[in-house]
Amino acid sequence: MSKNHGYTYNVNKLMLEFPCYVNEYIQSKRIVPLSDASIYEYCLDFRKYLQWLIDNNITHHIKIKEITLQELENVTKRELEDFVLHERLRLETKCGENPHTSALNRTIAAIKSLYNYLCEQTEDENGNTYLTRNVSRLIHIRKKSETLHYRAAQLEGKLFLGDETRAFLEFVEHDYEKVISNRARTRFKKNKERDLAILSLFLSSRLRCAELVGVNLNDLNLETNTVSVMRKEGKRDVVPIARFSHKYIYSYYETRSSMNIDTQALFITDYNQSFRKISNASINKLVAKYSEAYKVRVTPHTLRHTFATRLYNVSHSQVLVSNQLGHSSTKPTELYTHIVSAEAKDALEKL
User: Fold this and answer.
1) Which residue from 71, 186, 197, 318 has the highest number of Cβ atoms inside 10 Å of its Cβ?
2) Left if phi > 0, otherwise alpha if psi is -120 to 50, otherwise beta: which for 278?
3) Whether the predicted pLDDT of 313 surpasses 80
4) ω into residue 33 within 30 of 0, thus cis?
5) Residues acting as catalytic residues
6) How far is CA 322 from CA 64, 67, 82, 196, 309, in A?
7) Smallest Cα–Cα separation from 335: which of 51, 327, 99?
8) How confident is the model at residue 5 (pLDDT cuts 50, 70, 90)?
9) In the chain, where are the structural domains located?
10) Which listed CATH number (2.40.400.10, 1.10.443.10, 1.10.3720.10, 3.40.50.740) goes with 149-349?
């Protein structure tokens, strides 16, 4: 089963637990379309919220499927705030003193999206929306309090800027196997071509982890040096690939194309001769493993930041970087203007 089909399967399975109005929301997002991965993440948040209503006796049902629209509408501001506080404390317990703001914000955004849909985009037999009261409007997403300079300073040491990008790939290619055990070396050699292709594609394009996972064989065009991807907003995009990564991608592509297996996924895993699309979790683990051995443990998104920063250092164009990253505005790219490159530091020393 492919990863995309896996998301669809899991969403369909969750829909069996949900009230019909939640399933209507899901169907509306499939029409947009929102990516299967994003819909699945929202479904997990819906289930978490609806189950919390039951666990805290806000609704007196056993199954979340039985929760009515009226009960959802009658949730008070204080009760919704209690849910948000519950999530914050859960994340603090899981992640330490400072919870992941983005994780909490995503959950709040999911709840807001559901309420907004029920209050604004539905219609009953009388032509009225399902809900008239939207309690989620009283709850605000907490924005990150760090300045761009602070975020840049925290991020800079984790980026592979300048010659470090090639040095990192060369380390994985030539030196990584020297610092691992014989058992680990066997596994490494088995997946070496694939892993180098994954790392180099992150570092030479603007792909997110989920976008890379979703790439199929026929999405990669070696003649134009581009890859076709599905963005998280459900939009198809064509992404150019920087030349330095071509040798790694070409090498793996030739090997992958010769494999006579059912799945069309470009990046696959082999477990007991069972081939399937590589997972987000597997990619996160391999990026962490190689980056920690080289310098510092990072995520695929950090490699995306590396690409964006290097591109900005060369072009000094927020518009270009924004377009490359698939953003609709230049605001998200302002971070890269605050990451001081090695060249800029050298210039400051001469003042």
Assistant:
1) 197
2) beta
3) no
4) yes
5) 208, 232, 301, 304, 327, 336
6) 41, 43, 38, 26, 11
7) 327
8) low
9) 3-145, 149-349
10) 1.10.443.10
